[in-house]
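Weekly structure sync, notes
Attendees: PL (lead), two postdocs, one rotation student
Agenda item 3: pending single-chain targets
PL asked that the sequence for the first pending target be pasted directly into the notes so everyone works from the same version. It is reproduced below exactly as submitted, 374 residues in total.
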Amino acid sequence: MLTLYLHIPFCKARCTYCDFYLVTGKERIDAFFSALSLETASRLADLKGRTVGAIHFGGGTPSMVPVHYLAGWLEGIAALCNFSSDIEIALEANPEDLGGKKMDELRAAGITRLSIGAQSFMSEKLHVLGRAHTALDAQQVTAAALRKFESVSVDLICGVPGENRSMWEADLHKALALRPHHFSVYMLSVEPKTILHRQIAKGIVTVPDDAVQAALYERAQSELLLQGYSHYEVSNFSLPGHHSRYNLATWKREPYLGFGPSAHSFLVSQEREIRTANVSSLTRYLAAPANAVVFREELSAEERFTEQVFLSLRINSGLDVDFLRKGNKLGHTLSQTIARFSERGWIEQQEGSIYLTQRGFLFADLIAEEFIFG
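Predicted structure, written out during the meeting:
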C-alpha cells in the first residue's frame, strides 16, 4: 500500500513559531498547480499499478487554496493509480478558511478528514502564536466540521509564552468539550530563525522551561487517556479507528510519495530503500517540476536499523529486543541500559518487546539514541 503527501506551500502569513517551507500570498497558486501536474506525470513509474490508501494535503495552508485545484489534482492522480475502497484523504486547514460553503466543497472534492490547526481555544495564546483566527472561530469551525466529516483532528500547542498549568487545563477542557476524533498535542519548539526565536533573543517574550513544558504535556496525556483517547504516537491521540493513516504509515516505514516543493519520499524496491527530497524553493520548483528531486540516498543496513529503532519507539508499537541486540554494537551494556530505563519507569517489557510508558514518551528520542549509540 502506498501513501501520498502533497506540500502546498502557500500561507497568508508566517506564524511566530513556524519554520516550515512556505511562501506568503496567493499570486502563484495557478502556476504551482500547473507545475504540480507535470511533476505528478513524471512519477508515473512510481504510481502505475499501485494502490493508494491515504493522501495528505499539508503545507503551508492547503485550506486557503480554491477547492477546484485540489479536486483537479485528485482526479488526475486517480487516473494514474488505484485508490483503496476506504481511502483516507486528509487536509490541513486553518479555521479562518473554513467559513461559508468551504467545508461542503471540500467534502464534494473527496476530502474525508480535516486536520484543523486550531493550536488553542484561548484568545491570549492565539495572539502570542500569531494566529489569524479567534478562539470562537476555532470552537465554531471544529463543531461544524464534526457534523460534516468522518474524522476531525485538532492541533493543540502547550508551553507558549506566559502559559501556566491552569491556562493549559482550561484550553484542554474547551477542546475536549467538542469531542473531536483525534488530537495532535505539541510542546512549543523554538526553532532557529523563526519570529519567536528572535523575540526570545530580544527579551520580548520568555517561554516556560522544560520542566513546565513536560508537566503540561503529561497533563494532556492523563486527561486524554481518561477521556478514551489512545496515545498511539508521541504527539498523537485518537479515538478508536481515527488515527492518521498517512502519518502512521510513514512512522511504520511504509512507502510514500511526496509532491511539491520541500516534499520527501520513501521508496522500497527489491529490498532497496531510497529517500528523496524535493527542492525547497517555489521558484526553482516552478522552473523544472519534473526534476524537483534534489536529494537522493539509498539507506544502508545501519541506517535502516537506526530508523527502525527510533520510529518503533515513537509509535510505541513494540521494539523487539532480539532485533535490538542483533543490530547494535553495545554488547552487554545494552542490558544495563534497558535495566536503567526500566528502573526510571520510562520503558516496560512484554513478551520480548520494549514499550514506552506514558512518562517515557517524553524521552523517546533520548532512549532510542542510548539503545543505538550508548
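Discussion points:
- The chain has a mean pLDDT of 94.
- The longest strand covers residues 82-93.
Action: rotation student to compare against the earlier draft before next sync.
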